[in-house]
Design a protein that fits this description.
- The complex is a heterodimer.
- Chain A is an alpha+beta fold.
- Chain A is 34% helix and 16% strand.
- In chain A, strands 3-4 form a two-stranded antiparallel ribbon.
- The longest helix of chain A is centred in the N-terminal third of the chain and has 22 residues.
- Chain B is elongated and about 95 Å long.
- Chain B is 8% helix and 63% strand.
- Classes of the chains: A alpha+beta, B mainly beta.
- At the A-B interface, helix 1, strand 1, strand 2 and strand 4 of A face strand 3, strand 4, strand 6, strand 7 and helix 1 of B.
Amino acid sequence: MVGKLIAASTAAVAALTISSAYTQRSALVLRQEQQDNYWPRYGTVASGRYSSGVWVASPDRQSYGTFRGGGPGVGK
Amino acid sequence: MQVATVNLKKSTIGALRVDVEASVPSNQWVTYEIQFKDKQGKVIASGIKQAWSESGTWSEEGESGYWSEADTQGGLDVRTNQDESAALILDVLEYSDTAGKEISAPVSFNVTVRSGVVDRRYLWAGLFGTGALSLLTFIASGSGKLVLRKKVDDSDVSDRADTLGGANNLVRARINIKTDEHTPRDLWVDLVVRDGNGETLYDQSHTVNLNISKTDKGTVTGGKGQLDVYFLLEPRSSYGFQVEVHPDASVDRTALTVQEKVRTRWPVQVTPLKST
C-alpha cells in the first residue's frame, strides 16, 4: 500500500516537474497581466508589470536616471 | 543599445532565453536592464540585474590571501501568445564603483539568445524529489509483517508464533546480538525451529561476525551482530523459534524478530521446511 502511494506521488512529481520545465511556466509571458509563475533567473527581476496590456515600469525602475518613459498615456 | 531583433513565436514548449554576462571590473557595480521593444519602440518586457564584482585581500593568524566574488550573470525567459518580432535591447542603468561614485565608461556584455529553451530548474527539483521518494521506497520495500519480536538481556531467546508461514510466504528470522567490552570477533548462533507438535524441523549453527565499536583511544566498548535466516514454512500453522548464542559470557542482549511476507531486494538463500 505504502509502495503504491509512493509510486503514485513519484509519478506525479515527475509529471509536474517535466511539464513545468517544458512549458516554461517560469518565463515572463508577454502581454499577460498575471505573472504569478514568473521565477527570476540569476536574480534578474522583472522591472515592470502589465496594465491593460501595456508594460509599466515599476517604481524601482523609474528611480534610474536613464528611464525613457513609456506606459499608458505616453506617445499619443 | 540594441543587441538583436528576435522573432517570438507562440509555442507550448520552451521559451526564448536571453542570457547576459557582463564584464564587470573588480570593485564595480553595474545595473543593467534586458528589454524587449515592439515595432513602435515601446518596451513590452524588461528585467533588471544588479551585477557586481568585488575583491580584496585578507590576513588572519599570519596567513594572507586574495579573495574575489562576482555576480554578473543575468537572464530573462519570455514566452508569447502571439507571433511577433521584437528588438532586444541591453541598457546600462547605473555604473559605479563600490563607493557609489559613478563611472562613465562602456561596459561589455556577452549575450546569448536561444529559442525553445526548457527550464531545467524544474527538472533538477524533480530529480531531487523523485530521488527522495525512491530512497523512501527502498527503505519501505524491505519490510514485511511482524509476527514475533522478543528481546532478552541474555544469550538465549525463544518464542512461538501461532499462525505463520504458508505457501508463497517468505519468513525471515532476524537475530540481533549486542555484546559488552569483552566481546569476541565472532559468535555462533544455534537456531532451532519446531513445529506445533514440538518436533524439530531445523537445527543449525551460524557464524556471526560482529561489528566492534571502539573509543577514540582504541578501547573496545562492545560489539553488534546480525543474522538473517530465511524460511518457507508449510503449512500455515504454529512454529517455535529458539536461539542460543555461544560463547555467552559477553552477550548483553539477544533479540529475535520474525517477519512474514518479506520481500528482499537481492536473492537470498531460503530453507524450505515442511511440517507433517
